Amino acid sequence: MNVDLSRLEEIEVAVSALREGMDSSRRHSFPPSAVSFEENQITLGFDRMRELLAVALSQVPFYEDTRRQLTAPVFTLNDFPVINKSVLREYLASLLTRDPLTTKLPSQEISICTTSGSTGQATAVIRDWQARRADWDLFEMLLDDIGISGVGDTIHLGLRQLGMPLLLPADIGSQGIWWNMPLFQPDNRESRTFYQALHDFSRPSVFYGNSKLFDLADLADEQGWSFDSEAVIWSYETLTKAGRERLTKCFKGQVRNIYGLAETGLIAFECACGSLHFRPDLAVVELLDSDGATIDNEGVIGELVVTVLTSTTMPLIRYRTGDLASWVLNCPCGRISRAVSQLIGRENVRLLTRDGRKFTPYFVLSTLSEAGLTNFQLIQRSLDRIDVVYPRSVSLPAFFWQNVEDKLLEHTMNMALVPCPGDDFHYAESGKRNAAVQLLAIT
Ligand SMILES: [Zn+2]
User: Fold this and answer.
1) Of the candidates 103, 202, 316, 394, which lies 20 to 30 Å from 35 by C-alpha distance?
2) Is the pTM here over 0.85, yes or no?
3) Ligand 1 mean position, distance from CA 38 (Å)
């Protein structure tokens, strides 16, 4: 399959024009990552939380019952109910803040974000410009922590956003160009053209995205391309240890996680010690067990429940994320903001063994990736098999599958993994590719 040379020239012209027009005054000065800086963020976070809860009680119809049930004039986060995705779907209109005088919706710029629907039905949330700005703030802070020099391009292979141009002058972190790369499709001529252009005309400093980075790594191997970036920012999906090593080998830069959902925006980032720190001025995080009780101890796994502090247009208070993690109480990096371990899976994505037992797929994902398969997806359509989809070009060592099944059986995981090289990956509408997808009628 060849690339389209006329399109390649067109992209080259666009890249040169953008570089010439770049304004070096765009460069931001980064805030220092000191403890006093975090203390200020914590203070700001408390102020924002007080305002958010007050607005919710007085201007958001959904919280009328909560207000009526308050027994004291002082209220805390614990007075508010824990909500989940189905509450968002059912009560979207009554979760919006109303103007206190007219009871109409506030007149300001808002946008509707849709969650990927990769784990169930898609859900809409309303976000305003402050919430979007917070995403960039967190991204910049992470780049600053890594020590990015700010001269290269940012390559975004994340979720597709409607109407996003391929090339943009970067407004954050670097003076380069922001490349919004479309999904790579190995047999598609135009797709190959875009990726050839990325290689020929870009100076990548940051790679940002999800499992599509593995597709690019495979393509780089196939074409003999080498990259020398400063950072790889991973988001939206589970990343195994072996997957992380694969990214470092291909792209060279430090691999760090950034965490957020479409509903919450970006709210946490991974420090150099591997913990995921929630920025205290952006979100309040709780960890709840399966009975809804608060977990305070280190090492106990629970579900992340977050309150987003950056927007009062549609307050998101005590929202169940479905992500599982455990507290890290004293992170060696010295930050005082709340931190959790790496996410270990999603509460609502469970695969089933042949005898119908549910389990989180993380152990299977890490077993496969440690055995040498990094770009793959588990798809379960029936109880008696779990398809392992990966690119046809990947060659696996002899006895690979036998070794993997033996290892799973040692952990009493009785399942038939069926190799499906070259099958289509399963993508949500947004372009998100979850590492494991369960398509059974049972949940
Ligand atoms: Zn840390």
Assistant:
1) 316
2) no
3) 12
